[in-house]
Amino acid sequence: MKRGHVVWGAVLVVVLALPMLRCHKQPARAGLGPEEGVAQGVPVEVPELSQLKTIDDSGVTEPELEKIISQLQPIFFDFDKSGIRQDQVGSLVANSGVLKENSVPVVIEGHCDERGTEEYNLALGQRRANAARSYLVTLGVRPDVLTTISYGKSRPFSLGHNEDAWSQNRRAHFVALPPQAALKATQR
Fold first, then answer.
1. Does residue 1 lie within any of the structural domains?
2. Which of 133, 124, 149 is closest to 99 using CA atoms?
3. Phi/psi at 141 (nearest 5 deg)?
4. CATH number for the domain harbouring residue 148
5. What beta strand segments (E) does the chain contain?
6. What is the rounded distance in angstroms from the CA atom of residue 50 to the CA atom of residue 45?
7. Rounded distance, CA 73 to CA 158, Å?
8. In a domain, 8, yes or no
9. Please, which residues bridge with residue 173 across strands?
10. Which residue has the higher pLDDT, 129 or 40?
């Protein structure tokens, strides 16, 4: 009888521990999903942060980096979509010009509004970041200076709970890495 309690106790511990093994989540870094405005069936090779050039390699100074950062514009998406909207193409063209002139490492962050599950929004944010990256590459930006990450709904720009706020949170944000961050990224 005591042995049966021990076995059931061990089974209970294992059953309770299984969900904990899945708790460690990383930002999504998956490939493209089927969506308008995104190349379907085309594999996207996204370099890890450790593979990006550092600012020091590019010869960009801190003041120049600040100017680059100020020139990069976010792009915005429709609800539950990752296709590039026609009214956002101008921002991507402008960003491509900045990035072709200054070959600095850039992380494209995919963001979503608060609606939907965390898992779904991480995947959607990744598709948005990948769509922006793919578009920039087609405009001539070197792919080795671009990487993507999704934050889903975890980093809202606007904290409101209405369409105005949500529309600002459905975005791809472009972050040029400063020298110390680029160096840390390459040392990982």
1. no
2. 133
3. -75, 135
4. 3.30.1330.60
5. 75-76, 106-111, 146-152, 171-176
6. 14
7. 16
8. no
9. 109
10. 129
